[in-house]
Amino acid sequence: MDFLQLKYFQVTSKHEHVTRAANELYISQPALSKMIRNLETELGVQLFDREGKHIVLNEYGKKFLKRVNQSLSALEQGISEVKEMKNEKVEVITLYVAVGSMLLPELVGKFRDLYPQIRFNLTQHPAMIKKGLAYDFAITSEELANNEHAILLEEEILLGVPKSHPLSAQDTVFLKDLEHEKFISLTPGHSLRKTTDRFFAHTPFEPNIVFESDDPATVRGLIQTGLGISFIPSILWKNVVTEDIKLLQIREPRCMRTIYLSYPAGELHTDIEKSFFEFIIRFFQNIAQR
Fold first, then answer.
1. Cys staple from 157: which of 130, 152, 204, 255, with CB 3.0 to 4.6 Å?
2. Do residues 185 and 216 touch, judged by C-beta distance below 8 A?
């Protein structure tokens, strides 16, 4: 199996028509058909169902196409990065940040003070990873498949309430006592939302979510204006919580999350990437001690 086979399969899948795909690829229709047959023989399954003059991706083909798209996207990204290194003497670090985005300016700024030739590609949207974007490192609150992990920190999740809220007279709260409260939450799919949803796994009720936003700053603003309560990470959000929000410790269950530094398993790292790994570990150690 080689690059051309995968590329030809990708284009054929797009058209689901051998003649059109052959025209785009500037090869003959028989040559393309033979390439697809050889690929199917190597895999031991048919990737297309034949319907007269047309072909349609079957379930095997759809699954394989997903991985082919990811592989070719990662390859193209790698080619682009190597060309940049060659032409501009610049090394690129691709960093996927699922949590702690407010720390990014300080994190990358301090590292570039040490290594000014470094350029960062920063991704904060999970959809880009699902589309096959490769990364060198990822900061996440869950372990990623086919990755190795280092723990950056463990942090407690607190409850943020408006200063005008009756709960603000307390310092602690039990999750079971919040059944009738109005919650402000990040949207489903956000890493913090996944974590906080799990807190309710053993309660007899679901939180009454009255506002959802994909922007953490909006969530904090809605708390400040007295529209509800929400979960607040004790370390990573520490410097962005205003005096208008009272933070309460959740006594039961104890609400925690782990922040990981993830990186694809088995990959060799450049000297700069090794330096970045050591730097980010120290950076988060300092954050936790502030």
1. 255
2. no
